[in-house]
Fold this protein.
Amino acid sequence: MSALRPITQVAEELGLKPHEVLPWGRHQAKLALSERDTSGPQGRLVLMTAINPTPAGEGKTTTAVALAMGMRRRGHRPLVCVREPSLGPVFGLTGGGTGGGKATLEPASSINLHFTGDLHAITSAHNLLSALVDNALHWRSPSAPDPRQVRWPRALDMNDRSLRQVVLGLGHGNGQPREASFDITAASEVMAILSLATSFEDLERRLGEIVVGTKASGEIVQAKQLGAGAAMTALLMDALMPNLVQTAEGGPALVHGGPFGNIAHGCNSILATKAGMSLARNVITEAGFGLDLGGEKFLDIKCRAAGIWPRLGVLVATLRALKLHGGQPLHQVSQPAPDALRRGLEHLEQHLETLGTFGLPAVVALNAFPDDSDAEHAIVKAFCAERGVAVARHTGFSHGGAGAEELADVVSEALDATDAAPPRPRYLYELSDSLEDKVSAVAQKAYGAKGVHFTPAAQRDVAAIRAQGFGHLPVCMAKTHLSLTDDPTLIGRPRDFTITVREVRLRAGAGYVVPLTGDIMTMPGLPREPAASRVTVHPDGRVTGLMQGE
């Protein structure tokens, strides 16, 4: 990697003026919200999504960064807009979230660790509200919820399974004892709110609308009744401003917001995306996990809220994941297995059909590994050609932008084809549909399910949410990322399956409802061998081991 450019030079490449940029050290900056006008000509938006991944992931961020670098090499004006990493995955199973190899966002160590402090600010704002809830209980405030009906947890940006269920207030004078829980910060409603807010005023309004619990009468209690909205907004003033960094080849990147894709809506902030579309001709944004999770939520939730729509969906796939979905054991997916690959292509076909349901042209980006078989790549290309879908192989991890020039050309050609008639928004459901119908639409159209079963507990949740006046909200499905179903062991393209919704949670501030399926948890645990164990701090201050293969 060459030496990083001063962040002022990166800003100049985007046409940003000095008063629009707030440097945060030599190689990072914030965009001044009050100085940015995003109402002018809009760039072409590309959604980077994927098939359901192997446990190691499919390299969506790596591919997004590589595509931006490849387009820049080809003389285009690209900008990549992605989420901020969470310390939980960084020190957990997957490692850092800044790409990999020669296709990274820089300064990677800073972005993966404390960065500009956004996640710390979100954690603080979340826990301020938690403290105000318990303070209202302690003083028996008229605005306090029933202690047995508090629904607001605490938050921590770390994988810590021991905090999933806790008891608060033990000891004399330490508050009212009650059971509680912790969510990881990336699953916090405050994170979702920050990523969907469009201004400081909108941020404060959304924070105030958070439902923290209910009274014994069934009346909801919101954060604004506890006087929390303005104080939480004050903690998030800097965090709301998008972060400007650069790729390993010096191209511009906006990294802002980090909601999980299998629990929350899995997209970077509306503010960063809209700022990017006002600054660059081609904007590449990534949504968490596969098209069935972050991709669907990007289109049905974020795009609906922001009034934007992508021109194109780039579907990242690897031979390894396709063979896994075709029945090849995980420890053997690096070996040639053309029959398993052909079976796995049915999984790819489901995602291509989903993009078609959204009305989006598709490009398949094959993230290539050094031991991949050319013959197996040819099988995938022939499969896509039969369906009229463009496909390009890239080696961005090994070769940076030079390894993604073919992908850049294919994507640019597909984008040019939309200039005469950009795709119009086509959602899977209407907001006027019932909550049950919204969930069924996602399950049937994005997952290929035959139907949805709501447990009695979920039915009660839906009835309460509807009675409280929130039945019009979109749905944000919480589901495993390893399968199209709610069972992580059912790989490939299962048929005739039913999605079971066991619980439904209201996120009034974020503006959506979360149906929980399977065994999804909002506080992950660490694996047997955490990524934290491979981190090394060198005498010169360099930190390595934060990303896989480093």
In short: Residues 68 and 227 are 44 Å apart (CA to CA). The mean pLDDT is 95. The radius of gyration is 23 Å. The chain has three domains: 46-116+244-417, 118-235, 435-517.
